Amino acid sequence: MLARLSASAVASLALASASNAALVYGGGTETGNRFNAGAGAITYMNCFTSVGAGQTQLSLESAIVGIRRIATAGALRDVGIKIYAAEMTFDGTNFGRGANYLIYSSASLGSGTASVTQLVNTGAVSGVTLNLETASNAGLGGWWIGVEFTGANAASTDNGWRVVNAPTTGASINGFGIFNLSGSGVFQAFFAFGTPPGASPSRMMVNVNGTLVPAPGALALLGVAGIAGARRRR
Predict the structure, then answer these.
(1) Do 208 and 121 form a contact (C-beta atoms < 8 A)?
(2) Peptide bond preceding 201 in cis form (omega within 30 of 0)
(3) 42 pairs with which residues across the strands?
(4) pLDDT tens-digit map of 88-129
(5) What are the extents of the domains in the chain?
(6) Which of helix, strand or coil describes residue 181?
(7) Model pTM?
(8) Is 152 left (phi over 0), alpha (psi -120 to 50) or beta?
(9) In whole angstroms, what is the distance from residue 65 CA to residue 16 CA?
(10) CB–CB of 64/154 below 8 Å?
């Protein structure tokens, strides 16, 4: 069960050089953990990429998320999935969620007999251009990728978004956001694993391909955010 801290904490970025190629975020190595926020909830991973002067938009091309699936009694428990891309907001203290786009949906991840980290590919995404959050961290533009589990087994922790270490392309805060946790109807950030929160890897497995779009914009200072959380192992 997740508990949200009332105090805020500085959210540090693990930086890596952003590629000029199509991959703008990703490459983190897997840990032994996975996370499922429960039925009706959407977990959001924060993603940042290096931006130049005037680059304040990202034209999204595709995304791949890694879902850890655990075989119980020799079989995987089937589940549906929705993947979202969302704009990130920042008010000087808190990070939020802006425009939200459904970019992939499937009623079934399929069957199997062995535990696996299953890569779910959205395929080509068209018509989604995100306004990047450029105020919180100088030289970086941020957005969210979200995962929601659906169907009768949505809340089963046999399926969870794979937890990874820091990305090798792009940057991220060691934490994540959740919309509609326990039916709250609101977006909350940041949650993180470990004691104190953030002591353990708290990033989710995702690779994002896209193209930076020149647009007028300005950059600002490092932001702050509160974090909290819990984890599931295996």
Answers:
(1) no
(2) no
(3) 179
(4) 999 999 999 999 999 999 999 999 999 999 999 999 999 999
(5) 13-233
(6) helix
(7) 0.84
(8) alpha
(9) 20
(10) no
